[in-house]
Amino acid sequence: MAQGFPLPRNCPFAPPPEYERLREEAPLVGAELPGGRVWLVTRHAEAQQVLSDPRISTDPATPGHPMSALSAKPPSAEEREAGARFRAGQFIDMDPPEHDVHRRMLIPEFSVRRVREMRPDIQHVTDRLIDDMLEQGSSADLVEAFGLAVPSMVICRLLGVPYSEHDFFQSRTRRMVGAAGRSQRDAMAAAMEIWDYLDGLVTEAGRNPGDDLIGRLVTTRQATGELSHDALVGMTFLLLLAGHETTANMISLGVLTLLRHPARLAELRAAPDGWAPAVEELLRYHSIVDWVAFDRVATEDMEIGGQNVRRGEGIFVLGASANRDPRAFERPDELDLRRGARNHVAFGYGVHQCLGQNLARAELEIAYRTLFERIPGLRVVGDDDELPFKYDGVIFGLHALPVAW
Amino acid sequence: MRIIADRLRCVGAGQCSLVLPEIFDSDDEGLVVVIGEVTEADADGLRHAVRICPVGALSLRPDSSPAPGTPQAAGR
Ligand code: HEM
Ligand code: SF4
Questions:
Q1: Considering the domain boundaries, does residue B66 fall inside one?
Q2: Domain residues for A337?
Q3: Residue A120's domain is classified under what CATH number?
Q4: What is the ipTM of this complex?
Q5: What is the pLDDT of residues A111-127, one digit of tens each?
Q6: What pTM was estimated for this model as a whole?
Q7: How far, in Å, CA of B30 to CA of B33, rounded?
Q8: For residue B64, what pLDDT is reported?
Q9: The domain that contains B54 carries what CATH number?
């Protein structure tokens, strides 16, 4: 019988338990979804191959794209309308050459060098959030007070959202990433409000461009006609969407994981050089995005991992399985903070590999290091089985993380 | 040995400059540039960089191979 999908996680520190069996069975496994059949890619080598093969498309408009197979119902008129509205500038859903045109405009904003220049600012934001936590008492929800707040503040400053409007922006982004108990409809309404807000910000930058990402794109790309107003709004919206919940979830999950390994945390405190490889390992170990961003479809008949894949067949790459593949990582289920392996696919592979990865690395490193430096007595309130993990979400993480010090 | 960095393929992920900052950097466009001399001592690091580049923009060639046209070549 073909495999059902998606498969749920049942442990916060491991991928869905069936992945191991599927990975040993074959590099590509067929799965039966409500709306049709798709391929699941289980191993590291084939994951990299699929993610970098130019004959494989990520465009939702390509016939056979697997996202539509997740649900038996075709999308409602309302969903289609929202989808069309949010399409402009979403280069994560485009194939080359259209994809590359958009991405290249943003590459200089996220280079290793530029991110190095942003570090003092990220440090400043982080320190201020910790000041607030300390001022407000001896306990907090780390997701709300810190995990979501760090990437939100960083992205506001990058885009050029005025300080006085950070609160508006943050409350909408929180609703959009769906805190526990909030509806899909509310998340959609918040997304619309953010889109409209960014639309206004881009219009304002047209009159009075600032020295920020939006200001620079308006003067160098929109003014020259290379980029439409809507595409520019869409690109900034994508940055927010792609960089917010991902980073927030990694901050809170990483803090929890480090607190559960006190001996290794002590080593990191003693030797801060260890933070960079530790961040890399936490990304691999948690693989929070797993398959959701790896929706692909073959545009030609081809062979992958000994399997014939036909044109129009949908593919999901199981990132969390590839990152635990013993063919690519020794003792893959062990958290080895000194491993320093950079060949994981937590940021993807191929032309869509995360544009913000160096910013994310800097945010995680600064967030973890500063939090444990400044609040040495930090502890989690509650056992792992009492914490609200996002077993229901598409990106894995925590809805809340009660901490005290 | 020489390292070839194909700027037409590079997507600016910067993986190479994280592995070998003495050899790879990014320019104002955010794309890869080879800034350092390549020696035999870097062979392992270079092979690692070639493997983790997400788009196959880096390649190692023996000294004797002819220098290509468009991509930027550096090293001895
Ligand atoms: C820990 C945090 C993060 C994780 C785990 C993550 C993960 C990913 C993954 C797996 C992809 C590949 C999607 C695909 O193959 O289709 C991706 C793409 C992307 N990410 Fe991230 N990301 C993170 C943080 C960020 C940040 C901070 C930003 C920017 C502010 C960002 C912006 C983007 C963009 C724009 C893309 C699309 C790139 C393209 O299609 O060329 N991400 N991310
Ligand atoms: S690793 Fe590859 S894509 Fe990334 S900067 Fe270097 S050459 Fe470009």
A1: no
A2: 18-404
A3: 1.10.630.10
A4: 0.84
A5: 998 999 999 999 999 99
A6: 0.94
A7: 9
A8: 62
A9: 3.30.70.20
